[in-house]
Every structure is written in structure tokens, then in C-alpha cells.
Amino acid sequence: MTAARSDRTQLADDEVVRRVRAGETDAFAELVRRTRRDGYRLARRILRQHEDADDALQDSYVKAFRALDRFEDGRAFGPWFLTIVARTALSALRQGKRRAAASLDDPAPEGNVSLAERIADPEQDPAVLEQWLLAERAFESLSEEHRAILALRVDADLSYADIAAALGIPLGTVMSRLARAREALLEEMRDLSPKRRMVDPR
């Protein structure tokens, strides 16, 4: 009986939430398992530092647990939780509660290997890899507002409505900010492009 009670991997999100509400508080670990990777990636995108992202993620789980009574039955837990991560990370950003930003080429927390080296798969198409690295470096050069809204749309894959809820702004503002953020990213990529620098050195 205990084994069946602890195996929640096949349950829908709202059923896991229902069980947590009913007193099976250890079931919350299943929700953490399902969302930890995406939650961390979003927090890291916004805050740009491992320790800050980890702090924001832990705070977000505490907030989510306390807010489960407001979770709507029938919806997915992931997007709902990511809006909490976004608000928490953005709040930390605005309050200046963060460490110095890490560079793309800085050693990663899991070892003394840079991100650029970790993704340098010899079987990866060099042109695709170069374009990906260019986009990553361009992203790091964007304003906090542009990084945040692109992270919510691209990394978290949130709908415009969920982004509006996370940021507390109208739907139309989300669309206009995304358009400006994409334009800024493309401009940064053009400026960082080796071909552009050869023609127009700065």
C-alpha cells in the first residue's frame, strides 16, 4: 500500500496537487521533479548566476506550496509554477539581490569547464554551433527587460497570457515588448557577427 501511495509519476498534475492538499505533503516532491529543470533554466536566464537562480527556485517552491489552494484544477502545474519563478526572479533582479553576472565562458558550477567547451560536441554542425553561441552571447548583452521577456517566451515556453500574468502587464504590452526584444537580439547578433566585425570593426 505504501509503495502504491508513493508512486505518483503517472498522475496528472492536478491530481498530485489534490493529494498534497489532502495531506500527502510528500507528493509535492513529484511536482518538484517535474519542474525543477525548467524552473532553474528560467531563473538562470533572468538572473544570470547559478547561486541566484538556485535561491530564486527554492523561494518559488515555497511560494508555490503555500499557494496551492489557488491552483486551478484541470490546468498544468508547470506553466503556473514558472510564472511564480518569473515573478520571484524579477523581484530579486529589481531589488538588486543578486551576485555578479557570470559570463558564457566562466567555469560552470558542476566543474571547471566553460559552457562553450561543454557544448562543443565534435559531431555538432560547426555552423549551427557558431550561430547558437552567437545568439547566447547576444542574449547576455540585452537589457534586463528584454532578457526576461525572451526567457519567458523562449525558455519557459509560456503563452502570451501567462507572460502577462507573470509580469503584471497587458497582453498588448507583452506583444510589443517581445517584438522589441527580438529586434534587439537580432541587432546584437549582427554586431557580434565575425563577418560584420571584419567589414565594420568597432
Please characterize this protein's 3D structure:
The chain has 202 residues and is an all-alpha fold. Helix content is 67%, strand content 3%. The protein has eleven helices and two strands, in the order αααααββαααααα. It has a two-stranded antiparallel ribbon. Strand 1 (107-108) and strand 2 form a beta hairpin. Helix 5 packs parallel to helix 9. The longest helix has 22 residues, at 171-192.
Q: Compute the average pLDDT.
A: 81
Rounded to an integer in angstroms, the radius of gyration calculated over CA atoms is 19 Å
Note the gap between the termini. 69 Å
The order of strands across the largest sheet is: 1-2
Tell me how many strands there are: 2
How many individual helices? 11
- Poorly predicted sequence stretches spanning 5 or more consecutive residues: 100-105, 107-120, 197-202
* Shape field: elongated
Question: Which percent band covers the strand fraction?
Answer: under 5%
Q: Please give the share of residues in helix.
A: 55-70%
Largest sheet: 2 strands, antiparallel
Structural class: mainly alpha
Give the SSE string: HHHHHEEHHHHHH
